[in-house]
Amino acid sequence: MQCIIAVLATIFLLQTRPGFVQPVPASVPDVRMTCEAGRESVRPGETFMILCTLDIPRDFHVYWKSPGASGTPTEFQVGGGANLQVGETLYPRPAMFDDEAGRTYGYEGRTQFLVPVTVPADCPEGTVPITVKGRWLACRKACWRGEATRGIEVVVSSDTTSDERPEISRAARCMPIPLSSMDGASISLENSTLEIRGPIGRRGLPRLVPVEIPGVIHADPRISRDGEEFLVRIPYRLEPANSLGAEPRVEGLLLFGEERHDPSFAFTMLIPPAERGAGGEDTSNRRNAP
Amino acid sequence: MNPLNLTLQLLAVSMLCSLGMPAYAQVTPLPANPTPPAEKGEKEEAEEKPEVAKVGKPAPNFALKDIKGKAHQLSSYAGNYVVIEWFNPGCPYCRGIYDNGVVEDIHTKIRQVDPDFVYLAINSTANQPKEFVITQSDEFLQKQEMPGIPVLLDYDGKVGRLYDARTTPHMYVINPEGVLIYAGAITDDRNFDKGDKATNHVINAVRSSVSGTEVAPNTVRPWGCSVKYQGGSKGGRKPRGRAPGRKP
Fold first, then answer.
1. What is the ipTM for the molecules in this complex?
2. Across the interface, which of A5, A11, A101 has its CB nearest the CB of B166?
3. 20 to 30 A from A157, CA-CA: which of A133, A250, A270, B153?
4. Architecture of the domain spanning A177-281
5. What is the extent of the structural domain holding B165?
6. Looking at per-residue confidence, does A290 or A242 come out higher?
7. Residue B30 maps to a domain
8. With contacts defined as CB-CB under 8 Å, which chain A residues touch B224?
9. Domain CATH code at residue B174
10. From CA B78, how far away is CA B80, in angstroms rounded?
11. Domains contained in chain B, number
12. How far apart are CA A242 and CA B183, in angstroms?
């Protein structure tokens, strides 16, 4: 018994000596990507979803489209024949991760993304091959870049169209919905501050996940209760020289609750030219439906 | 119970309690600004809240030793352009900028306008033993045939925090007058697939500065792995509360 205790004590002393740091595991995380068309067959001119699933190993995370202080966005590139029109990837509600380098936004575990694809109206009938290339950065204590390419097929037929797979609607339930769909919500811009109001539900005050837009610098947001409403105020300033050609706008998500199926609302508001001058001279209040 | 037994058992219990807790390396950094004893109290107070690097302002001075043991003080490079890369050869993006010739391109093109420009790689990685960080950095640059790039060790992360370095790579350009003229991404090509069409923000910043035109952009969101500071990532902790932002 004494021997065992002595061995354990020795290990302990070695582990806690100054300068000892647990080495980072060298193994590459096995992030698995699968893709499937949301329908087996579509008519020319119709839009369908491609479902891309990442199975992320325990304790690792990949990043949202606007990853925060560090990281790179998870991306899906869809290619193939038939001049398919590929829409913007729909990202599910992200989680927040904090470390010494700042706050980032992303995903753990099984995560599903949707990519809308429209078949041209003049698309000839037949089987259309599609390739999906996914790229991600998976991090735990260290980071690994990953990518995978998957091939899928969809049948284009003017006669029949198949039902959407139930997995698509399940994935869609994790996607943020427009703030305009929240009853009683309003969004306005005044004195270089974006203000969002809405009813406080049973889930309490929202949390804000900002989308970083080049040339638009957010200050700390203020989230408070104003009677029966929540009030989110996001001060910003513009740096036109750093816009990289992007239209100046304030964009982000409001998250309610903690779980990935809890509601999240997306907002975006272009900063009108009158507000883009130094100091935002035009202080006219624009209260819009979001 | 005899005293030996008691001591061993206490050690075992404390060991079990400490499982999972991070153990930090001790380092002895070169003082950033050696301070005369008479001013020490005042200086210590000032050092508690160092001014973080800001584009358009004088770059905060620092002093660090490189992995060969040579001391480097930023202020000693006044009169030349200084490019600083936050460096971690364990990060795939950091390796990528070497593997894809981005760093070499910076050296070639900036030497054309300032033959004596200085390129510093600062490694604030502390999720590995210090000896490993040194060896890994050295071996990486040897393999890249760029052993001349000094890798400055910032194991306690003080200089990284002073510059608000978030990613590897995260680039900073300082002009000959000591003013920080650019901070952010190295290029607009994080997937390394744009080839000659990629925009190198570091080269552009130096060229603009040399020609006397406005450096634009002077701040671009950096991409890459997070800097692995001491006490860093604890995995997927999901905090509540406000999301942070930058003060306008």
1. 0.84
2. A101
3. A133
4. Sandwich (2.60)
5. 63-234
6. A242
7. no
8. 70-72
9. 3.40.30.10
10. 6
11. 1
12. 11
Residue spans of the domains in chain A: they are: 28-172, 177-281
Q: Do B18 and A24 touch (CB under 8 A)?
A: no
Chain B residue numbers with beta carbons less than 8 Å from the beta carbon of A217 are 245-246, 248
What mean pLDDT comes out for the span B188-194?
96
Q: Does B246 map to a domain?
A: no
Look up tokens 């499937």; give the residue.
A36
Which two structure tokens, joined as six digits, stand for A119?
């078949």
Which residues are registered as beta bridge partners of A226? A229
User: Are the Cβ atoms of B236 and A6 closer than 8 angstroms?
Assistant: no
Cα–Cα distance between B68 and B85 in angstroms, integer? Answer: 18
Residue among B175, B174, B154 at smallest CA distance from B165: B154
Determine the CATH number of domain A28-172.
2.60.40.10
Residue A274 exposure: Cα atoms within 13 Å on the Cβ side: 8
Nearest-Cα distance to chain B for A217, in Å, is 6
pLDDT at A234: 97
Report chain A's C-alpha Rg in angstroms: 24
Whole-structure pTM over 0.95, yes or no? no
- Examine residue B217 and say whether the peptide bond preceding it is cis (omega within 30 degrees of 0): yes
Q: Tell me the pLDDT band of B85, cut-offs 50, 70 and 90.
A: very high
